[in-house]
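In this section we walk through a basic example: taking a raw amino acid sequence and producing a predicted 3D structure, encoded as discrete structure tokens. The instruction is simple. Fold the sequence below.
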Amino acid sequence: MKKNSILITVAFALLIATATGCSKSKENSEILDNDISTDSISENSESNNYNSELENTSDINYSKSDSKVSLKTNDEETATECNAVDPINVTISNGSDSTDKTYASISDIDLNRPDNMMPDHVFMGWNENAIIQKIADKSIDVTSNINITAESTDISNVENAIFNDATYVNADIPTEFSIPIAIGGKTKFNTLDLEIEYDSSIMKFIKFQNVDSDLVCNCIPNENKIYISFSSSGNISGQIDLCDIIFSNIKSGSLETSLKYTVKDMAAYDKTTSAFSNAKYTIVNGKIVMY
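The resulting token sequence is shown next.
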């Protein structure tokens, strides 16, 4: 009898455990179903919101300006008009000669040696300093014609004129610029040792270009000096372009400097005496203007 009672108790316990397990399984199932239903509703809601946002932005155009993305409505885009900038007219006078040039912007105005300048003249700059300063500052009135007059030095009767034209450099950003070194006028020489010093606080040497075949040139940056040596089998009797020196500005703003020439030796060969004699020379160094 005791044995039967124990069996009945065990069976009853198993029955209760089975019922409890089923109840928990049902509850978990209901919870899972509720979670799935909630997530589904959330996703549908986000999808509807996204579609709604797309519908609301149908009148928006995406435009890129100055590397920034901006939004413009169709109404704003229609109201915005792009007006073409009128060309800038510049009259360049050189003695009795003048020429008209057209530029798209103030930054495009070329202030270097004008094309209509005589070959035996060294460009020294512009007569109208106030106008040039306004061009440099980009404050010039571009609604009316701009008139500028080139200044020059005539070297046609000068013996061995060692020169460079004035050079204008837009120094808003580091810019490479070329300074051609030449000898003109009444030339008569066949050897030259020349030293050129530059201001390394505002510009640095980059390289040589268009070097004459009879020329040897070298730069020592820590001395801020350029050395030029020229030797020819016969006397030079016309203008000779020695080389172009390429510099780059290392400062911005309005600055002015010039190259400093020192002639160590310059000689011509005299056939009658079969000897060399010192050659006369004149330095005509145009300024370097950074703006």
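Looking at the output, two observations stand out. The domain at 85-154 is CATH 2.60.40 (Immunoglobulin-like). DSSP finds three helices and 19 strands in the chain. In the next section we compare this with other chains.
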